[in-house]
Design goal:
There is one protein chain. Helix content is 36%, strand content 0%. By secondary structure, it is an all-alpha fold. The longest helix has 9 residues, at 34-42. It is extended, with a radius of gyration of 19 Å.
Amino acid sequence: MNARPLSLTGAEWRLRALDPADLDRVPATPGQPDAARRVLALRGFDDVGGVLDPSMAHLHDPGAMHGMEAAVLRL
């Protein structure tokens, strides 16, 4: 019997196909699981530093968010 892997909720896991060229664009990092590299490649990342080792420079200006001025005035 060939059982498919299920999540804790019983949902069936379906892995999307990944082009090997996309995976090659994500550099391998020591200690990083291959699954993390695969997820990053599927989501179009090629700069893992900004995702796995973020800094303040990677943050966007919160004042640029839609509705921020109204939210600040309300608070």
